[in-house]
Amino acid sequence: MLDVLRSLKSLLKISRVHIDNNVFRLHYTVTVILLIAFCIIVTTKQFVGEPIECLHSSEVPESVINTFCWIHTTYTVPSAYGKEVGKDVPHPGIDSTQDASQFRYHRYYQWVCFTLFFQAALFYTPRWLWRMWEGGKIKALMMDLDIALCAEAEKKAKKKMLVDYLMSSLRQHDWYAARYFLCEAMAFANVVGQMFLMNRFFDGEFLSYGIEVIRYSEKDQETRTDPMIRIFPRVTKCRFYKYGSSGNVEMHDALCVLPLNVINEKIFIFLWFWFIILSVLTGLVLVFRVVITACPLVRVYLLNMRFRIVHLDNLHTVVRRGSIGDWFLVYMLGQNIDTMIFKEVLAEMAKRMTTEPKEAA
């Protein structure tokens, strides 16, 4: 397990080449690490410890009851949550009713570790696609220009090569930018979709889970019912059937403790708030992408705010003569090469954009 955790640390390493933004990075670094870490915690408790322990008063071996109830699910009675514990019922959601139509079965707990791993894979998918589509373009164009300490002749030659490429491929990078924007949209669709996936996984309880927990903390202690115990019950019931000595089918009730749900409830309340925060941040990024696509002045403002050392007139020229794809490529290059070199590259681009048409005429 320690080897797996060490390998996850590589996702947190800051790469020398930046090909995305911080919000997009939250999806495939922080979120993936959290989900895999949670998966390891749940798996360790599930397969190393005792995920379920059942109390019963029959001659059936305890290990058989535990295994059966873990595999074939347990149940609670929703109507029993409103009853007083210790007086009307022994535990929240547990009473003596024999009406199976009132039972609520809990089938999710065997699948939590697999679901968390599947979620992690989905969160990494947009990053994998973008790396495949990006194809190392930014790294190739950098040409080690992120290191300012190099021979002047070498620096000059590399700057010329970079400007020549940017000028010769002007207005040809729109599809490059569109693919990145598509990956950001996929990241947003993924995190929102995962909220609904979890809601389906927990029988329609997940979407309102965080809100109910907040409301629970504000209610009077005498009347409130913990939503975490309702969704992740710590004590459930289980029915085991076998043949008796006379050949008749006998039913045996078991009271089962699920210590794993103490961990599950903490994991998923954290994920609920984290997914909400991530959805809002990614949604704002997508709105911002629409604005910068529609308004060139915003692109100029963003470049000026990020690279204040570059002359504003040069920024206006580069943005006005180029397309959204050119702006995106220039912005990404600015994050990866030396600031002074970037300033000189944009100055040369602006100069050639304003003089070459005149020379051609």
Automatic annotation (TrEMBL):
<keyword id="KW-0407">Ion channel</keyword>
<dbReference type="InterPro" id="IPR000990">
    <property type="entry name" value="Innexin"/>
</dbReference>
<keyword id="KW-0303">Gap junction</keyword>
<dbReference type="GO" id="GO:0005243">
    <property type="term" value="F:gap junction channel activity"/>
</dbReference>
<dbReference type="GO" id="GO:0034220">
    <property type="term" value="P:monoatomic ion transmembrane transport"/>
</dbReference>
<feature type="transmembrane region" description="Helical">
    <location>
        <begin position="267"/>
        <end position="298"/>
    </location>
</feature>
<keyword id="KW-0812">Transmembrane</keyword>
<keyword id="KW-0813">Transport</keyword>
<dbReference type="Pfam" id="PF00876">
    <property type="entry name" value="Innexin"/>
</dbReference>
<comment type="function">
    <text>Structural component of the gap junctions.</text>
</comment>
<keyword id="KW-1133">Transmembrane helix</keyword>
<dbReference type="GO" id="GO:0005921">
    <property type="term" value="C:gap junction"/>
</dbReference>
<keyword id="KW-0472">Membrane</keyword>
<protein>
    <recommendedName>
        <fullName>Innexin</fullName>
    </recommendedName>
</protein>
<comment type="similarity">
    <text>Belongs to the pannexin family.</text>
</comment>
<keyword id="KW-1003">Cell membrane</keyword>
<dbReference type="GO" id="GO:0005886">
    <property type="term" value="C:plasma membrane"/>
</dbReference>
<keyword id="KW-0406">Ion transport</keyword>
<feature type="transmembrane region" description="Helical">
    <location>
        <begin position="108"/>
        <end position="130"/>
    </location>
</feature>
<keyword id="KW-0965">Cell junction</keyword>
<feature type="transmembrane region" description="Helical">
    <location>
        <begin position="177"/>
        <end position="197"/>
    </location>
</feature>
<feature type="transmembrane region" description="Helical">
    <location>
        <begin position="23"/>
        <end position="43"/>
    </location>
</feature>
